[in-house]
Amino acid sequence: MGQKMLLNLPEKDLKKIETLVKTGEYATKTEIIRFAVKQFLYGQERIKTLEEMTAKLQRHANTRKETKKEIEEAKEETRRIISKMGK
Known about the structure:
The termini are far apart. The chain has one domain (13-85). It has 2 helices and no strands. Helix content is 79%, strand content 0%. By secondary structure, the protein is mostly helical.
């Protein structure tokens, strides 16, 4: 099982939590807090994963740009060589 913690919340947040329990959205205040903590922690993990994926995609895009540039340079060099051959 987990460990007990003392938690102080602003009155307005506590009232919102109590309303969620009264309306039946959640069974207890503890359930809401657990849910919120899990959402925060998993959200942090998702953000890290998205940042890693974004970095990977950016590297891939840069590689594609560099490859396109190299192809265009090779085409231009080929044109220069062919034009010299015709002289």
